[in-house]
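Kindly inspect this today.
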Amino acid sequence: MTEWWYRRRGRGGAVVVAAGLVAGGCLGAAGCSGAGGAGGMADGVAGAGHARGGEAVRLVRGAADTLREAGSSKARTSMEMATGGTRVTIRGEGVYDYRRQRGRLTVLLPQDPAGTSEHRPITELLAPGALFMKHRGAGVPDDKWVRVETATLSDGNLVTGGATDPFAAAEVLRGARTVTYVGRTAVAGTAVRHYRGTADLAVAAEGASAGSRGALAAAAKGFATARVPFDVYLDDAGRIRKVRHRFSFVNGRQAEAVAVASTTLLYDFGAPADVRLPAARDIFAGRIAED
């Protein structure tokens, strides 16, 4: 498996680069797993019995608003892909401020196939309409950031950065069309209810916050299908503890669909999340060399 650096030309003429994976021009999908296991819980999501039908749709669609009320949390992300029997996972960990829609993740790329070299961790700052990356891109000074405008990406940065923005992951659920209550379980020791369904990215974009609307609209047009299957796990307060999306986009080289499983785990709500974006002088404006 070889690395592929997803390229887009941003404002100011700089070629922006973010992480993705490809092998021989063809990529397949594999499931993504996170913390969790079977367990019981008392009845009640947001003070009600387990939701079904229209009530389940309402709870899932409102998950982003519930996160905003929660304020902040820590987050772990996992983006898993497979091809030719080889599975590759990109992992991230950090914090997120849902009220300001700002996050900071440290993203770890997988080893080279031969296992002879380690990739330097990438620091990603997430903000409405933008992704900032440090230590990503040949020729970029260590003290400079690369800026990506998420609305210019055909996937809206749901996949490109190697991690799905936690708040964007929740905003995708605003497009939930069908939701089924699966049952009670636990995620990392926290009692949750599991819901499964399909979201429409175009509908999600219409109901999203101003900071996410452009990116989700781009994803609705750029993905192979605007329909996104999901599994989401809500705690007693209606907060997302785990959400898993299965995205599908078209590999331009061979015009075939590529599937990616992205999982986001949220925990330690209320944790400090002071995320400061880089100053203009710290953003790299040159051309990024080929790796």
Residues 106 and 194 are 28 Å apart (CA to CA).
